[in-house]
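for the writeup, i need someone to sanity check this before i put it in the appendix. the sequnce is what the collaborator sent (i think, or maybe the updated version? ugh). structure was predicted straight from it, no edits. if anything looks off just tell me and ill rerun, i have time this weekend
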Amino acid sequence: MKNKFLSLLSAVLVIVLGLTLCSVAPVAAEEAKTEIVFWHSMGGVNGEAIDALVKKYNEENDKNIHVTTEFQGSYDDAINKLKSASIGNMAADLVQVYDIGTRFMIDSGWVIPMQDLIDRYEYDVSQIEPNIAAYYTVDKKLYSMPFNSSTPILYYNKDILDKAGIKEAPKSFAEIASTAKDLCEKGGAGEPISLSIYGWFFEQFLCKQGLDYVDNGNGREGKASKVVFDENGGALNILKAWKDLHDQGYAPVVGRVDAGIADFVAGKSAFTIASTASLKEILENVDKRFEVGTAYLPSVTDKTDGGVSIGGASLWALNNEDEAKEKAVWDFISFLISPASQAYWNAQTGYFPITVKAHEEDVFKENIKEFPQFMTAIDQLHDSSPESQGALISVFPEARQIIEGEIENMLNNNIDPEKVLNTMAEKINKAIEEYNLLNK
């Protein structure tokens, strides 16, 4: 009887122990997994490419790391949501922030400077395109990791140019004007250029002249205290050239930011200016109805001492004071900037491969062979000096809105460029002054 009781007791213990182990094991595994949250602002085909990369990372990484992506809407939406959070409870571990948010993010105190992670994990920063790294480098420290970098380029309808007998894409606004009549009368264009009113283009036209936007080394040697584009002649050159093109009927008001793309895709305009990140979508929407050509951003004058500055966004590691998450964030970033990932990203979106060795990947080579238009932006970037890296100011979002509103007002209401320039400078200087007073 005693033996039967001991046997029964042993059996019960085995069952209980087994159930206990079964219930404990998954918890232990779950505790070992590191979860990180990645906020991004990529929609459409770009968002699909992000999702594919994250899916690949989650399936293939062997460090028990899982990345959850959260689409935040526009870049403005993302940074505004970030502002409402608090240190140690940021709701995200890695965020994609647009180029013009750089100075704000540095000043915020929310981040782990990317240079700290680069040094800690001994990453060779020379693998990053130097002209791209230059934008996010302040005081010799890389603050964020470049990811989706782009520049504006000129898109042209080669079929219209061929009919008009034009052999080369224009290099300046003056050349666009000189070809406009033939483009319309011989080429069949409804308008020579559908030029969106975009603050980013204004900044790029300054860079193309080799001129600064603000003081203190373009906001890189210290916080900007005022604009200088009203003193160096750069902005007046832009406004006069833009208004001249408009007043001749060659560049009608088509809207802001990316509005000009629609007329180009429809075959109405011979030219448009847009980000290289729009290339994939433009090619898909044109769908071989005409041949799409790409060329360097035209200048507003015949003087082109500078080059172009990058746009797009970069990756910022938030300081949530969690060592495991910090390691996981770096591991995920390392995957995103690997040559294979960057070659895929470039082929799917049109953004630059920020890693030099991505050019050696078969995916990159095959994409360039099929779509040589992708090479234009890369060549343009390489032909630009690092000094054309662009300005850093904390009120850039407001500044762009001011620039766009005043250019729109100038064109629609025939206002003198000099008057528009003074208004721009006054409004932006006021915004800079107010920010600096609040953030001493």
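The CA atoms of residues 160 and 188 lie 7 Å apart. DSSP finds 19 helices and twelve strands in the chain.
thx in advance!!
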